Amino acid sequence: MMSGAVSLLDFLPSDWRKGLFLGRVQTADGPSPILVRDGIAYDMSGVAPTVAQLADMLPLAAGSGQSMGPLDSLPAPLLSPIDLQCVKACGVTFAVSALERVIEERARGDAAAAGEIRARLEDRVGGSIRNVVPGTSEAAALKAALIEDGLWSQYLEVAIGPDAEVFTKAPILSSVGPGAQIGIRSDSTWNNPEPEIVLLVNAAGLAIGATLGNDVNLRDFEGRSALLLGKAKDNNASCSLGPLVRLFDEDFTIDDVRNAEVALTIDGPEGYRLEGVSSMNQISRDPLELVRQTLSEHHYPDGFALFLGTLFAPVQDRDEPGRGFTHKVGDRVAISTPRLGTLVNEVVTSKDAAAWDFGVVALMTNLAARGLLNTQQKDPA
Asked: What does the record give under GO molecular function (predicted)?
């Protein structure tokens, strides 16, 4: 866990006593799914032993479970709110992030060369790319112009072309939750957090709620080659989610996601502070369109969590002028939006983060020992 005192109330949404939330807690017996309604947490393991199963039983299961008392006095720590869901992510869904990916590519992962390239690209395509709708005839015309100018990039293809970038961010059960340490590779010298909203999609392909996520990125690795995306994105403790999934209802809908302002603060051990924001109303592709493209012709029997991308692109210098931002061990990263709460994590190297040793076999063994596998898909009525 991260150093310094962090209470559960530091994570919770402003109106946590309203609405319906889904999550996971670490009990003395093992991880358990919970539902939170009217500010009370309910252990749902006797109804559905995994979040993946519980997600398919809503809304019927919303009235069941064993009370654990008020959420703010919960004795068990919050875990990442998903378990067996595949963790997917969409990249380059905002114009600014598209430009930054092009810069990474042109600079070959060299932060010192990025400033000059950034200025040239913004001057040539910054205005037009922000206004174009992906996959339209206007986007095709812009693509032709950029190719003619020698400015085309694979990143611009997914920014304004018909097909979104969708990749696998992390294996199932590998994501960490609020208060946990997040990891960057020890051999990375240019990296950053990516504050995002994450949709929870059930086995039927329906988006049922949203949470916050940190899609930690290694800019030097991906900048050297897009084929290094896996190394840039998927490392020990490099994916954090939480604090809870807020389930969609009459009071919280996909429109709240479309209009959310996601704030980011980074407080460094040397007193450095960076603030940023990702405005979801500037996303180039609608969140439900990203869900549709992720589903494609595939089937996710346990559902999936989908990172929607970020507008945030850190260019503020931290040490040397012109080198921009990169993490230091000990950075405290807080991602927040009022209706989803705050996701707080402390940066360490992936090799120093807690080892990921609780996988599918460990989960199934734990659930079997607790006698919960025989209770799966219980009728919540």
From this structure: hydrolase activity; metal ion binding
Instruction: For residue range 331-378, list pLDDT tens digits in order.
Output: 999 999 999 999 999 999 999 999 999 999 999 999 999 999 974 455
Say if residue 170's pLDDT is above 50. Answer: yes
223: left (phi > 0), else alpha (psi -120 to 50), else beta?
alpha
Domain segments of the chain: what residues? 8-93+164-370, 95-160
CATH topology of domain 8-93+164-370: Fumarylacetoacetate hydrolase; domain 2 (3.90.850)
E-state strands within 194-316: 195-201, 207-215, 217-218, 239-247, 261-267, 273-279, 304-307
Contact 93, 279 (CB under 8 A): no
Helical axes 95-107 vs 111-121, angle rounded to 10°: 130
Task: Kindly report, residue by residue over 274-333, the tens digit of the pLDDT.
Answer: 999 999 999 999 999 999 999 988 789 999 999 999 988 887 889 888 778 999 999 999
- Please state, as a whole number, how many other Cβ atoms lie within 10 Å of the Cβ of residue 302: 18
Q: Do 196 and 213 meet the contact criterion of CB atoms below 8 Å apart? A: yes
Determine contact, residues 22/357, Cβ cutoff 8 Å. Answer: no
Which amino acid is located at 40 in the chain?
A: I
Query: How far is the C-alpha of 199 from the C-alpha of 300, rounded, in Å?
Result: 14
**pTM to 2 decimal places:** 0.91
Give the Cα separation of 260 and 126 in Å (integer): 23
43 C-beta neighbours (distance < 10 Å), count: 17
307 Cβ neighbours under 8 A, 6+ residues apart: 87, 88, 89, 90, 169, 194, 196, 198, 213, 215
Contact 67, 100 (CB under 8 A): no
Could you tell me how far CA 72 lies from the centroid of its own chain? Answer: 24
